[in-house]
Amino acid sequence: MNRIWAIIERDLRRFRRSPTLIIVSMIMPLVQLVVLGNAFGGKIKNLKVGVVDQDHGVPAVKLKEMFQAVAANARTFDTIPYTDQATALRDLREGRINGVLNIPPNFSRETLAGASPRIALVEDNTDQFSATALEGTLNQLLVPYNSKSIQPRLTPNATLSIVEIYPYVPYIQFLLPGTIVLAIFVSAMIGGGIIYIDDKARGLHEGYLVTPIRKLELIMGFNLSGAIKAVIAGLVLVTCGSIIAGIPDPLNILRLARLLIVVMATALALISMMFLLMVRVNDPLVPRAIFGVLNTVLFFPSGAVYPTQSFPAWMKVITTVDPMTYAVHGFKELILKKTGLLAISYDIAYLLGFAVLTMAAATLLFRRTL
Amino acid sequence: MFDVEVEKLTKCFGDFCAVDALTFNVEHGEIFGLLGPNGAGKSTLIRMLTTLVPPTSGTGRIFGFDIVHDANKVRQSIGVIPQAMTSDLDLTAEENMSIFAKLYSIPRDKRRRTIRELLKAVDLEQWADKPVKMFSGGMRRRLEIARGLVHEPKIFFLDEPTTGLDPVSRVAVWEMLSRLKRERDLTILVTTHYMDEADKLCDRIAIVDHGKLVALDSPLKLKASIPGKNILEVSFSEIPPGWENVLKALPEVAEVKGEDHVFRISSNNGPRTTTELLESARAAGVTVTSLSVQSTTLDDVFVHYTGHQLRDALQAPPASSSPFMLPHR
């Protein structure tokens, strides 16, 4: 036991004297939270829509007035009048506007005749997000336009009422659980991967190996000291991240205590996994080379940035075994839904089981000789 | 029983045997030097004896404990200073020592006392609480020597402890080792490629080349074992035919080796051979362009036994090569 503490003490003293690496491991996820959180998920505004009115009748004027109302209030789009369609389409292709709304010459006549008139939206569908926003707004707009001034007494249509059980969650808050996991991962990667292999290459481990320390003591020492550093990184993100993302009551002690348990389980799982990956590696380039790949393979399938239900089957396999999936789920429940530990007991059990399994495998593979 | 017993110890990496059936014993209380060029297999031998590398065949015993089967008992009874400096730059001298004392499970009260004593013994007492990154190479090496002794081992392995140090630090390290050996009743096994150091400090020297033991004795006996007491290195302006035979016929000459205009003459009586040599040269009308006479050194012993000067050789490959590195052709 004393020997395990000796290894942890050495590591933590070094960390205290030169904490640069670990601080870097916290800054990257924080920057990502702020930038990605604000880059995605905001409401799309001020799209440019060219309007070509070939009709000039009263119903067409009424329609254009409704567009201008949207432009003035919700500001999803601004309207730009065009006199001919060719110019409008050329501007659309050249990227000066995002869509062209065409009111055909017989629009008024068909409206007044009681036929179903058509208007056309020509959209730039290379940008899915803007196109979807434009379609949605225009469809909504046509509902009041179509509604008759005199309503029938009974409306036979079924309607959907939506009940939101949690307050509105902006994207930055949706991203926060993943960001915490990322900070723990980066810290495990630096502490358990890069520093571990650098120490090995510099001959520091040779010093350990000539002492009577046991294999398991060495591995426990390396793992626990790495986990402690990862927990520190995780806690910083839990508190700073919650404040930045605007989580209500970010410093609630009970919730922080629950979060600490998930942070610890995640740190143990990720550091043990890293140790298993690095147990036979001697070249300091290897952890640096696999850093990006590992990050992509584990982080994105975890559901941290996009719902896992949309993934293809092969990716769902990764999602199922990926410890980050369970960590992200655990943090989401605690931070966004404010549940108790019981709701995430499966996540914690998986993370701890994963840690035990990978650590056991690493112990089997670990060589006590050079 | 010897402190170290090595019998037919062998380590091969594929076809290449870094250590090839070495057999020798180290007596209690001696400084035993392993002398050889880089790549001769000295480090591999030390790593096998300190349980870091498992041998391919043969046996090694430290205080009777087998280096493979009783590895932990071996580790408990030896102190090791690896070739690379492995002290932590961010920690202080005392912290470096303390961590290792804990790894050897030394109780707290004894720990403090031993660390202070050892830091004093290596003249680092006043720097105990300074970070190691402020230390010079020699200071760092002395700290590592102290660290290797923290559990009071009776046998001490040092792999090239003076490589990379300036001459003053080298002398300081060796003096320290001699003193520690006397005061603490140590047996020391040390590798080096500095002949002069080995000559002055080792009680016995094993000359290792290509993984094989080529000679083993005290420096004095090793020097006496090669022909001649003095070495004359002499060069001439021209070489008349049969000149080498003339040189061999000079009094007290044991051996003559010639290369171009330079001859290396081993003599049992340097002054007498020199006088006769100069007279023969004048009689033959040959000018002596340079002449030096010196006592036999370990360098001469080394050249005699290995047939070459200390030179570079291929290193043993690392235990496992990286998949990211291409093999050299």
Question: Which key phrases capture this entry?
Answer:
heterodimer; A: 370 residues; mainly alpha; abc type-2 transporter like fold; 2 domains; 14 helices; 4 strands; 65% helix; elongated; B: 329 residues; alpha/beta; Rossmann fold; Alpha-Beta Plaits; six-stranded mixed sheet; 11 helices; 14 strands; 35% helix; 27% strand
How would you characterize this protein structure?
The complex is a heterodimer of chains A (370) and B (329). Chain A has 370 residues and is mainly alpha-helical. Chain A contains 14 helices and 4 strands. The longest helix of chain A has 31 residues. The radius of gyration of chain A is 29 Å and the shape is elongated. By secondary structure, chain B is of the alpha/beta class. Chain B folds into 2 domains: 217 residues, 3-Layer(aba) Sandwich (Rossmann fold); 69 residues, Alpha-Beta Plaits (2-Layer Sandwich). Chain B contains 11 helices and 14 strands. In chain B, 40% of the residues are buried. The chains are: A mainly alpha (370), B alpha/beta (329). Chains A and B meet through helix 1, helix 8 and helix 11 of A and helix 2 and helix 3 of B.
Low-confidence stretches of chain A: none
Q: Given the structure, what is the number of helices of chain A?
A: 14
Oligomer: heterodimer
Average pLDDT of chain B works out at 87
Largest sheet of chain B: 6 strands, mixed
